[in-house]
Here is the input.
Amino acid sequence: MRIVVAGASGAIGKVLVPSLLARGHKVLGLVRSADGASRVAQSGAEPALVDALDQSMLLEPCRLFRPDAIVHQLTALPANTDLRDFDRVFAQTNLLRTKGTDNLLAACRDVGASRFVAQSFCGWPYARQGGPVKTEDDPLDPEPPKAFRRTLDALRYLESAVETARDIRSVNLRYGGLYGPGTSLSEGSEIVDQVRRRRLPIIGRGGGIWSFVHITDVARATVAAVESDITGTFNVVDDEPAPVARWLPELAKAVGAKPPFRIPAFLARLILPEHLFVMMTDVRGGSNAKFKRAFNWRPEFSTWRDGFRRGLG
Here is the structure.
């Protein structure tokens, strides 16, 4: 297949592009910087330097390449992010999830590509009601914390645009919390540094449920989705959704840190923004059962327990 990967030099793209090439596909990698273009070229793919928010600029290399499929992995996150101002941090990424999605779908139609795969997210977007682990049939949060609202609106927009593109065989992949080389949870990352300094505490009972997925499993799942005709929305996570109180001490152990401190919930409410309190105490995880059945996929790192020990990289 001839495949366009938008966001080819990002954390996922760096792993996805070589994976697609290894399967014999031809890849055009869309990037926004000269450094990104150089990395894509070194991987063996063809780079194109574009602004994904400029539709005419985006269309030109796609028309020359004539892809069979387009993969949407566009994000614009700084290396170190202060999640206290969540929507501000994600503002440019949210533009890529709205206008960027529209532009990529337009390019898909313009060049006659029949497959479209988009990156979404699984975890805090689910409604904080009912059981701890959610399926794709469960609703997203109708009343998210204020700091999440624009980002959740952008995710809803992306998924709706993809799901209603009836003329294209489209799929949304709701990735879990990414970890592994090149991600925000990797050896040398700010999060690992905070864990080593014991600056990432367990809040209250630590009941927030997180679903993780290793970056190599993300690439494998995305390749499977690109090569399939299956449509719909799917959680792409590992086999063990877990509360903060369970996974955070294991992460500390894996990076040679002392166990995390604990802060009473009543005190944390006074010092933390609402959305960070919710992430540590009340979010829901995601089930991967639907994706595993549909795509005959199994994560190499079936649990973060194994991944934190040998996969942070």
